[in-house]
Amino acid sequence: MRYISTRGRAPAQSFCDILLGGLAPDGGLYLPESYPHVGAAELDAWRSLPYHELAYQILSRFIDDIPSDDLREICRRTYTAEVYCHARAGDDPREITPVHWLDDGSLGLLALSNGPTLAFKDMAMQLLGNLFEYVLERRHDSINILGATSGDTGSAAEYAMRGKHNVRVFMLSPHGRMSAFQRAQMYSLQDPNIFNIAVRGMFDDAQDIVKAVSNDHAFKARHKIGAVNSINWGRVAAQIVYYFKGYFAATRSNDQRVAFAVPSGNFGNICAGHIARMMGLPIERLVLATNENDVLDEFFRTGTYRPRTTAETHATSSPSMDISKASNFERFIFDLVGRDGQVVSELWSGVESGASFDLVGSPYWACIDEYGFASGASSHADRLATIRHCFDTWGVVIDTHTADGLKVALEHRQTGIPMLVLETALPAKFEDTICEALGRVPDRPADLADIESLPQRVEVMDADVGAVRAFIERHCA
Questions:
Q1: How large is the angle between the packed helices 180-187 and 152-161, nearest 10 degrees?
Q2: Nearest 5°: phi and psi at 328?
């Protein structure tokens, strides 16, 4: 399996090479040359597999430069009840991603937040940490990971990479924009290979810095800069697995179809669903849910992709989705335009200069319905109402991002098609809004009870590429 850039001007590479590299040299994102097809026989064979073995079966379709026995062992070591240790009472912890049914058999929550940081990002990041360590040890190499987070990616990456051999992590976050719990999860880590940088600005400012550093090819090569944001293909590949697992939980046979509702900011989570559908998983509809930062909803409604400036980006009560430049969206557009790297390059040349693009009237937009997307947006008032409705109706407390997903899911339910809402995080990460909605503090795992009281270690600086670059040079290996 070889990987190509969405912008068509970079040589094809192996999985292990792109795992460590992040962005392609031409500024694009990597995707496999073609998606492996999964037929009915494989779906039948995979239906009853434990999560770690299902992960191996799917990932082995994308990874052929790690020996099979080693890849299987990495998956087995990653997806354990000991790692995904925050299962709810009554769940079998070996399930890893159980479905919590609200309306039995027709509407459920796909539980993705049982990992160490209580967010779905752990599902891919724990695997990525083990893959990084394996590849670096095999190559006798080291890496300096540079990433940006709007809330959950940072802590998931840091918990996955803390203490790993030959790895340092430099994680940028928007200063004062995350919840107190999210900040504490990241900034309280004292591991010497973890560095937190709080940028005065929004997530998009931090993400722009990461892209600028990654596009400085000399600096990137000299300091061995890698990525764990969802621009890293390894993360997207790992997320494909739980779409299959959710499908099997919601169906009894392969002639049934399922819909997934996905809270989305950077398009990485739902991009994995798109790829699962392209592989042949019987997905009827992928329902994309945004918050007030509705760039992606606007595209699927109107055909116009119009990224916002920092000043136009809202700070909301679902802060991990406060994103107005969706990096992974480029991967979907690559498929939509027939995998023509020249077209993508031209479109993103405008985007990176602050322009928008409109596909209505193009042959590409005529094909949009073939990809099964629907979309909607949610507001703070919607969020509160949905959290209350979920608790009053089903006795279940959900976090703010999952509430965005559930609100839009309820607008797009279809008779006879099970709808699974992808849980984004546990409600303990967003106590203030849960208290506003329900008048009560959500339950918190005992091992994280007093995390805000721990000493925190973070460097605050302006959104300046030069300053970040200098910080990396002072602290990298």
A1: 20
A2: -75, -10
Question: Is 401 within the bounds of a domain?
Answer: yes
Q: Is the pLDDT of residue 39 over 90?
A: yes
Q: Give the chain's domain count.
A: 1
Q: pTM above the 0.90 mark?
A: yes
Q: Residue 335 belongs to a domain with what CATH number?
A: 3.40.50.1100
- Determine the structural domain holding residue 354 and report its residue range: 95-118+236-438
Which residues are known to be catalytic? 121
Judge whether 359 lies within some domain: yes
- pLDDT tens across 302-354, in order? 999 999 988 899 999 998 899 898 989 999 999 999 999 999 999 999 998 89
Distance CA 262, CA 89 (A): 24
Mean pLDDT of 74-80: 98
- 19 located within any domain: no
In this structure, what token pair is assigned to residue 167? 């790895």
Domain-located, residue 193: no
The rounded distance, in Å, linking the Cα atoms of 279 and 211 is 29
Vertex 220: Cα angle to 219 and 226 (nearest 5): 155
